């Protein structure tokens, strides 16, 4: 998924229904996908928030993520003919990571989580900046029997992530026995009264985790309930800066950097999210041709040998020859070293373990090619 790094513009930003809670917690804000969202919190910062998720439990407000609903006879079949992954691989009550690709080029318009409720009901969570475009493309293609509704601001999303996340939700009486990427509806008793929400066993951190989807008007009640029950578990509010370091350690792609209209799923090594045997999905012909020919570049991992932190846009070299560019780069709080994702030219013939150099503001830093994740995942 995306929206884990700030936008450049900050005009007319939307605000989460939890904005006042974030302000009270001393949040430092930044623009993300057209929203003003917490980057980190006072008394914590990125390192403490990152560590809380790896060792305990943290909660992220990711209400900036998009929400769209596709309903009507044949809705699931329609979505399946548009998006890359194969909804026939799952059944109702399951969620699936999928891609909205451009029909002509195969480039990625957005990456999306699809919640399959029934044959006539699919709920989509795209990224904040791309929601309107995903909805536009689906509406344009939809038959008369299928309705596509933009519900971007109608729902809040809270990501409860970390090894103790199930303990926390269990203390609130919420279901936690989900299989990975499955969901159910539950009632949460809050100080403001009962709240209906969807509990999905997923996340963007690599840890055991759940995402709670609730009507926006109940977001504060759910947030307060989490923190009222969270003290024994040392629950920490986490901002999107920690979300970025966590997802980079896992090698999870960020749309706009590791996936984009210029970067196809074949190049990004996201072919596992493509239903290659399907008769139809947007970009099918272009992607099948690229897969058969072999991509000219592929997304690889880099780990710093020197004391250096790679950043997006930095050039990767073998000797004097440029062989690619960093798409995502950060300091890994878990590994205590610089890590990166980079698009590297296939023609360079680089293998895992090979050494390259990254140009960091005019200084060459040595890095080793590797295959993500950079830490051991625990999502299953």
**Relative helix content:** 10-25%
Instruction: Indicate the overall shape.
Output: globular
The assigned structural class equals: alpha+beta
Termini Cα gap: 18 Å
Largest sheet: 6 strands, mixed
Helix and strand succession? EHEEHEEHEEEHEEHEEEHEHHEEEEEE
Low-confidence region ranges: 5-10
Characterize the structure shown.
The chain contains 8 helices and 20 strands. It has helices spanning 19-24, 45-55, 75-82, 131-141, 165-171, 219-230, 240-250, 284-293; strands at residues 14-15, 27-32, 35-41, 58-61, 68-71, 94-101, 108-118, 121-125, 147-150, 155-161, 183-190, 193-200, 209-215, 236-238, 297-304, 315-318, 321-332, 337-345, 355-360, 363-370. It has a 6-stranded mixed sheet, with helices on both faces. Strands 15-18-17-16-19-20 form a 6-stranded antiparallel β-barrel. Strands 6-7-8-5-9 form a 5-stranded antiparallel sheet, with helices on one face. The two termini are 18 Å apart.
């Amino acid at each position: 998924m995306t929206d884990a790094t700030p936008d450049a513009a900050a005009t007319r930003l939307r605000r989460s229904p939890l904005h006042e809670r974030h302000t009270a917690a001393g949040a430092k804000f930044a623009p993300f996908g057209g929203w003003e969202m917490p980057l980190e919190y006072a008394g914590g910062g990125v390192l403490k928030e990152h560590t809380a998720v790896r060792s305990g439990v943290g909660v992220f407000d990711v209400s900036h993520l998009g929400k769209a609903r596709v309903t009507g006879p044949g809705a699931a079949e329609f979505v399946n003919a548009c998006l890359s992954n194969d909804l026939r691989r799952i059944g109702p009550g399951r969620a699936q990571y999928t891609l909205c690709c451009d029909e002509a080029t195969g480039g990625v318009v957005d990456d999306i989580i699809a919640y399959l409720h029934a044959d006539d009901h699919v709920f989509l969570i795209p990224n904040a900046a791309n929601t309107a475009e995903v909805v536009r493309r689906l509406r344009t293609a939809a038959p008369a029997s299928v309705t596509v509704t933009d519900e971007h601001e109608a729902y809040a999303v809270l990501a409860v992530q970390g090894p103790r996340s199930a303990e926390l939700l269990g203390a609130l009486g919420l279901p936690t026995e989900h299989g990975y990427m499955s969901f159910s509806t539950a009632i949460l008793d809050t100080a403001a009264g009962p709240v209906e929400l969807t509990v999905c066993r997923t996340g963007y951190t690599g840890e055991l985790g759940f995402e709670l989807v609730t009507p926006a008007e109940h977001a504060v009640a759910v947030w307060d309930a989490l923190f009222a029950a969270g003290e024994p578990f040392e629950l920490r509010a986490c901002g999107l800066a920690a979300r970025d370091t966590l997802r980079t350690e896992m090698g999870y792609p960020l749309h706009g950097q590791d996936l984009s209209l210029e970067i196809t799923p074949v190049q990004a090594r996201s072919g596992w999210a493509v239903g290659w045997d399907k008769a139809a999905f947007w970009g099918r012909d272009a992607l099948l041709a690229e897969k058969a020919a072999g991509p000219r570049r592929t997304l690889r991992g880099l780990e710093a040998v020197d004391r250096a932190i790679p950043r997006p846009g930095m050039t990767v070299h073998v000797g004097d020859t440029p062989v690619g560019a960093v798409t995502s780069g950060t300091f890994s709080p878990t590994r205590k070293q610089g890590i990166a994702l980079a698009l590297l030219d296939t023609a360079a013939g680089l293998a895992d373990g090979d050494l390259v150099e990254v140009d960091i503001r005019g200084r060459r830093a040595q890095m080793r090619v590797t295959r993500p994740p950079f830490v051991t995942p625990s999502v299953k």
